Amino acid sequence: MEIKELGVDKNIVTKEYIFDGTDIKTAERRTLNELNRKYTVEGFRKGKVPLSVFKMRFGKDFYDYFVFEQLLEEVYKSFKEETNLLLIPEIVEKEINSENGRVVVNFHKKPVAKVEVEKIKVRIANKEQVLDNYLDLRLNSLKEEHAVLEPKEGPAEFDDLVRVRVFVVNKETGKVLIDGKEDEYVLYKEDERPTVKNVVGHKKGDVVEFDREFAGKEGESVTYHYKLEILEVYKRNLPELTDEFVKNNLSELHLETLEELKNKIREEGTKIYDDEIKHSIREQILAQLPDVTELFISEKTIDYAVRLIVNNMKEENKYEDYVKKYETEEKALESLKDYYVTELKKESAIEKLAKEYNIERKVSDEELEKYAEILAPYWGISVERAKVLAKEKPEIREEIENMIFVDKVIDKAAEKVQREIVDVNKEGEESEENN
C-alpha cells in the first residue's frame, strides 16, 4: 500500500491510498476466507467454495464491498498515526478492481482559531451600590425579625400582620381545597395578591370573601371562592437599630456595636458579590467567545459534521421530531450547522487560549473536592458522596476536570476583557439609564 498526500484545504488533509496487484490478491484471499465462513453455496462443501464462484455470485459488489472492507483494515491502521483529528476520517472516493485499487480519505483536523478576547465587553454591577443595597436589605430583615407585635382593634393597614383562617372552594364543583387552615402574613403594600389587597381595611372578626379565576386545562378557566376570617390584627413596631439592640438581640454574633454589625454584613455581601460577579463574567465571556473567534476551517468539514450529527439523530429516532420544530428541513439543518459552528468556536477558543496561557488539563484532588462541594447540592447528595463520585467515577471525574479547566482559561481571559461598571437600583436591577 502506498500513501500519497493529494492536497490541503484549510483544515482538511486529503490522502490517497494506492493498492497494487499484490495488495488486491492478499485482500481477495482474506475475502474468500471470510465469505467461506459466512456463506454456503449449493454444490460446494462448507468452506470450499472457490474464489471464481463468489466473484460470479456477488458481481461488482465483490470488489466494491467485500474486498474494499479488507483494504479498509489497512487504511484504518494508518489512521492511528494521524493526530489532531476533529472528526472521524471521511472516505470520499474508492475504486477497486482485480488489478488495483485506490481509496481517497479526507482527514478533518482541528481548525486553527484566532481569538480576540480584548474585544469582549462584560457588564459588572457597581460594587458599592450592591453592597449598600445588601446592607439595607439585611438591616431591614433584622428589624422585621425583631418586630414587636401589638394587637389592634382597628382596621388592618399596610405593614400590619394579620392572622386569618382560610377557606377555599371550587365555585363550580363545590370541591373544598382549603378547609379552615390558619395562616399569618404581613400586609406589604407592594404585594398584589388578593389575599392581601382584600384584607386591608378590615378588622378582627371580619369575614372577607372574594373570587379568583385561574387558567385550567385546555385553556378553560377555573373559579375559586375564598373566605378569610380575620382572627387577629397586629401593629408591627419595628425596633431602632442601635448598639444596645446589637448586644441584646444578636449576642450569638459576639458584636458590640451597630458599626461592627454593618461591617460584618458588608463582609458577607462582599463575598457573595465577588462570587456572583466571577460567575457572571464567566458566563458573559463564554457567550461572546464565538463572536470574537475566527476559525480557519473548510465548509466541507462543517457539512460533514452536520451529516454525522444527522445520522446519529436518525439512529436514535430523534431527527424527525427535531425537524418538526422548524418550518422546513432546510431550516432545521441550518440551525444544526449554526449550533455546531458556535460550539466548535467555543471549544477551539478555549484550547487556543489554554495554550497561550500555559494552562493544563491536569486537576488536583483538592480542586476536584472543592468543585464537588459546589456540585453536591445540585446533585441532591451529601458533600462526602459527591467527593467520592468525583474521584472514583471516570466519566464524572472527566466532566468535572473539563469544567475546572474551562473555568481556569476563562478566568485568565477575564483579565484582558473590557469591563463596564453598571449602576443598580434599590431592587438590585440595572438602572434604566444603563439600558
TrEMBL record:
SUPFAM superfamilies tied to this protein: Triger factor/SurA peptide-binding domain-like (SSF109998), Trigger factor ribosome-binding domain (SSF102735)
Trigger factor C-terminal domain ranges (all copies): 257-414
Keyword Cytoplasm: yes
InterPro entries documented for this protein: GreA/GreB_C_sf, Trig_fac, Trigger_fac_C, Trigger_fac_C_sf, Trigger_fac_ribosome-bd_bac, Trigger_fac_ribosome-bd_sf, Trigger_fact/SurA_dom_sf
Superkingdom of source: Bacteria
Known EC number: 5.2.1.8
Localization of this protein: Cytoplasm
Class of this enzyme: isomerase
Positions of the Trigger factor ribosome-binding bacterial domain: 1-140
Keyword terms, alphabetized: Chaperone, Cytoplasm, Isomerase, Rotamase
Reactions catalysed, as given in the entry: [protein]-peptidylproline (omega=180) = [protein]-peptidylproline (omega=0)
Pfam family, one: Trigger_N
Family statement: Belongs to the FKBP-type PPIase family. Tig subfamily.
Protein name per the record: Trigger factor
